[in-house]
Amino acid sequence: MNRVYLKKDIVRYLGRDSGYSQAVCEEVLDSFGNLLVEAIENGDRVQLYGIIDVETQFVPEHYRGNPQDNSIKVKVNDKYKLKVSAGKRLRDAVKQTMIKVGKPE
Known about the structure:
There is one protein chain. This protein is an alpha+beta fold and 105 residues long. The protein has 3 helices and 5 strands, in the order ααβββββα. Strands 1-2-5 form a 3-stranded antiparallel β-sheet. A two-stranded antiparallel sheet has the order 3-4. Strand 3 (62-65) and strand 4 (73-76) form a beta hairpin. Helix 1 packs across helix 2. The radius of gyration is 19 Å and the shape is extended. The two termini are 12 Å apart.
């Protein structure tokens, strides 16, 4: 547990799992990354059904209290934020963590 999958690890896995060369898998992964960035820049949504849903969400101007002293209000300007939601397959995988790994020590 707590392994970090770097791009090279993902490319190696994709090559082994799909039977395609690692060079082809790296091109496809790069292309997917480009699509994701372009879609978000355009305000579009990317959904891998059951896995992940990525989109931008508009947050209008609002005032926020200082957590230490709620009487002080700070203005937060309009902005977009990134919203990432896990799909059912990913949520089910999280549930399996308890079965396979157990509680952290």
